[in-house]
Amino acid sequence: MNLKSIEKIVLPLDGSDLAATAMPWAGLISSNTHASIDLVSAVSADDEPTNLSTLANRLEKSKSKLQSQSPHVSAFAEEGNPPAVIAAHVQRTNADLIVMASHGYSGAIERLLGSVSFWLLRLTTTPVMIVKPQSGPPVVQKILYPLGGGISEVEGLELAAGLARDLSTPLSLVHITESSYSAPEKVERYMQALAEQNIEAEVHVEQGEPKERITQIVNDQPGTLVVLESATSTGIDLTKTGSFAEHLFIHTTMPTIVLSKVI
């Protein structure tokens, strides 16, 4: 097992208070992983020309705030469609993680996440960390990784384990099944591989409805960071009503990292 290291974080900002709520989370990850942070803002050509310079000035102020947690912070303000500009920057810089704030509304997934987050999840396979506004500083006390059997499950586990290592937090593997209490044989292999990497890990196996039960587990354990793996023929499908990711976004306040993979 090759644990994933976070070396480059992209933090999209648009000047709003909502977007700024993701800054402490990016700072937390960066301070523990020593990752650099790229602040990225974009305005479409239809906007006023002065908006670009205004965003650039705001980015510099945000850069100054983050430099206390991460000495390697850069700012980029560009003109263009925001999701496309951000996705291109992520690809160009080989970023390892995108950190963004969620509106936290219920209803359609695009309204729930915000249009930029929604489209980034479809335009890139880079893991996206979705956070909600919270009072107080960000705290991660546990990494939770649901075992879903997706094609990139091992890759997701490597990311979750790498974060557990860098954040010095335990890792919890959760397997909820509607048919049987028994854990699949792969869980034993995963636990052995984690032990070889000196990762503190536990396994939680039970029978039940996965979406509801995992959501309950997350809500019962404040300070939980969820790493969620999903792969479809078009990347992650968050547009589907009732999807696991949508359920978590609506019913929990904990941050979630979504790992998607185009096949």
Q: For the record, what CATH class of the largest domain applies?
A: Alpha Beta
The overall number of domains is: 2
Structural class by secondary-structure content: alpha/beta
Number of helices: 10
By CATH, the architecture of the largest domain is named 3-Layer(aba) Sandwich
Major sheet = 10 strands, mixed
Catalogue the unreliable spans.
Answer: 105-113, 232-241
Major β-sheet strand ordering: 3-2-1-4-5-10-9-6-7-8
Number of strands: 10
Say what the CATH topology of the largest domain is: Rossmann fold
β-strand amount: 15-25%
The value of Rg in angstroms is 18 Å
Short description:
The protein is of the alpha/beta class. The chain is built from ten helices and ten strands.
What does this protein structure show overall?
This protein is of the alpha/beta class. It folds into two domains: 124 residues, HUPs (Rossmann fold, 3-Layer(aba) Sandwich); 121 residues, HUPs (Rossmann fold). The chain has ten helices and ten strands. The protein has a ten-stranded mixed sheet, with helices on both faces.
